[in-house]
Amino acid sequence: MTSSAQETATSHQRNGRYLRAETTEDFRENLASVRARIDAACQRSGRDPATVRLLPVSKTFDESSLRLAYAAGCRQFGENKVQEAHGKCLAMADKKDLNWSVIGHLQTNKARLVASFATEFQALDSLRLAKELDRRLQLEGRSLDVFVQINTSNEASKYGLRPEEAQVFLQTLPAYTALRVRGLMTLAVFSSEAERVRQCFIRLRVLRDRLREIAPAGVCLDGLSMGMSGDFEIAIEEGATVVRVGQAIFGARSVSDSHYWPSTPHADSSSA
Ligand SMILES: *Cc1c(COP(=O)(O)O)cnc(C)c1O
Q: Is 1 among the domain residues?
């Protein structure tokens, strides 16, 4: 029996082994299976599945894959790198109801590009970036949903603010009226030890609960973006409202994650 929330395991070892989705039907099946896992995790933790948004992460997959995913019902894609996201956005401009979420670290000099097309940005982690995004958005007459990224694993290799920096940072955000703050985002430690992963998610929720009490007007901290293919069920048990899932929907990536993250120390050893 694994009905107790405490026993939910990570499935990082499956990463790299998910079959490549090649037809609309493959995408339908993968989406249905991820949703079933989301529903089960909600059930275990007494949550309403409608409170968890599934964000399909399409990084490294090409336009033809994204079109299949679209045909299977996806209307929003998460991309780690802004140029890659923008290229796909242009290529799929015929799909007017498609939204783009940038979920990876952004250099300030690329704020203009994000401001031009994204509807959501999940990796806000500096004042300079907030300021530049707001300036560019104001010029474009656009606004952007943002999540503030927090480093909950205390790994130097992960981006995000340290938890103790978050409060002061949040106080500055009401000045940037084109940014609609939606919550906090994190990447857990990449580990097969479920308990260490869970601790990262708990840290984000506890921080959110504390900050929500003192958040300035207009700063909404209801959202918790946490969990990916290998650990989204644990994240849901700890309160995730957005899970960012790539490989369990699209299939294994052929590009190493170190291309997207500064370093993922355990990724290679666990999938070798
Ligand atoms: C790639 C990525 C994900 C999804 O990872 P999968 O293992 O494909 O589910 C989630 N969050 C971020 C920030 C990513 O870059």
A: no
Task: Report how far apart, in Å, the C-alpha atoms of 177 and of each of 63, 83, 114, 141, 174 are.
Answer: 33, 25, 16, 11, 6
Ligand 1 mutation target, pool 13, 81, 103, most atoms within 8 A of CB: 103
Establish whether residue 80 lines the binding site of ligand 1, counting it when its CB lies within 6 angstroms of any ligand atom.
yes
Which of 199, 225, 211, 119 lies closest to 173, judged by CA? 211
CA distance 246 to 253: 9
Domain that holds residue 94: 9-253
Gyration radius (Cα) of the chain, Å: 18
* Alpha carbon 38 to chain centroid, angstroms: 15
By most ligand atoms within 8 Å of CB, the mutation choice from 80, 122, 200, 250 for ligand 1 is 80
Per-residue pLDDT reduced to its tens digit, 118-147: 999 999 999 999 999 999 999 999 999 999
Domain count across the chain: 1
- Per-residue model confidence as pLDDT tens digits over 70-93: 999 999 999 999 999 999 999 999
